[in-house]
Amino acid sequence: MLAERVKxxxxxxxxxxxxxxxxxxxxxxxxxSFGAGEPDFDTPERIKAAAVEAMRRGQTKYTDVAGxxxxxxAVCAKxxxxxxxxxxxxxxxxxxxxxxxxxxxxxAVLDPGDEVxxxxxxxxxxxxxxxxxxxxxxxxPTREATGFDLDPExxxxxxxxxxxxxxxxxPNNPTGAVFSAxxxxxxxxxxVDAGLLVVSDECYEALTFEGRxxxxxxxxxxxxxxxxVINTCSKAYAMxxxxxGYAAGPRALIRAMTDVQSxxxxxxxxxxxxxxxxxxxxxxxxxxVMAAEFDRRRHLIVDGLNRLPGVSCIKPKGAFYxxxxxxxxxxxxxxxxxGTTRLDGSLDVAAFLLDEARVAVxxxxxxxxxxxxxxxxxxSDALIREGLARMDAAIRKLR
Length: 399
Ligand code: PMP
Ligand code: GLU
What we know:
Blueprint: H1 4-7, H2 13-26, E1 32-33, H3 45-56, H4 69-83, E2 92-95, H5 98-109, E3 115-120, H6 125-132, E4 136-141, H7 152-158, E5 163-169, H8 181-194, E6 197-201, H9 221-224, E7 227-232, E8 245-248, H10 251-264, H11 270-281, H12 285-307, E9 312-313, E10 321-325, E11 333-336, E12 339-342, H13 346-357, E13 359-360, E14 362-363, E15 372-376, H14 381-396
Parallel strand pairs: 1-13, 3-4, 3-5, 5-6, 6-7
Antiparallel strand pairs: 2-8, 7-8, 9-10, 10-15, 11-12, 14-15
Helix pairs in contact: 3-11, 4-11, 5-6, 5-10, 12-14
The structure holds 4'-deoxy-4'-aminopyridoxal-5'-phosphate and glutamic acid (GLU).
């Protein structure tokens, strides 16, 4: 009954870990979850008030497929304000979260067999979305020794006549890398020379703690003309449930993505769109307060991870993830009532931490590195401390 394409589809493991932790908690198991890739803050009041006001005004009908003109204008104002990038509302598409934006892109751009370069480690949905439309994700490794910065030489070596696009994500999920301006400049040159589309996922832009977030589209008119800039209200404004993501880019591409969306979901929620107008144009103070809080927790969790025997973690520069190297635990065994299990990869380590420490993490294999596990530190200091203590106690019992 099912299509071939779903027989090999990997469901989102980030969402799966979140669901598993929630289910265990509902059964009364006291699990500390470092799975959730979402801010633990509530959406700021001014944004909620804008949504209530929109409902009162009767903004409860279908909107333009691409989004209300006011929101597309707000996106243009944001990109001008933060990056000096000039777009018009017709260059913007608003979708049901950046995940939806990315899928519209995949449908609009990839023919079967087209290759997409994906620097690895990568966010779980890029390769799966490409595969869903018959595209071929090509993983191009980055090096832990450079803090997982982009590697323009390896990317250049991976280009073939079938390469259509390259997906960049800075600040990066899961590594926390903030790509250097130098590497971005080299990749921009590569994209222009090879005629590639650059998909620049900047969802964690507001959470840049070290280095400087550079939008590759701002490096010159040639690269801007072949870049799709993607962002979301989810992370900066703690609006994951509202489902508002957006893209700005070449008009023909935006139009094609809008046509795809017109046959699939129509517009994103009208009420959420009006909340997003307020999010983007209103005072940005809460964003800075939330970012400062994540920055503080970053040191707490990374320092704690580096104190665990067999675990090491580079300091992420942005987003709210720690990507811990757990290869030092491989080959060791855990003895429980169910028997002895040897830890041979990130899935084993994640299962061991859940069973023995009641701590949920996402196995790195789903992000392209089996030597790592990902911990989201979008959670309280107390839970970070308790989670680290539980991991420490469980690891010390390994043989
Ligand atoms: N890109 C990255 C790198 C992400 O981590 C996420 C997950 N939230 C998204 C895009 C999609 O976010 P949303 O659909 O909530 O806008
Ligand atoms: N992006 C977040 C994460 O990586 C949320 C879950 C998802 O959309 O994959 O955990």
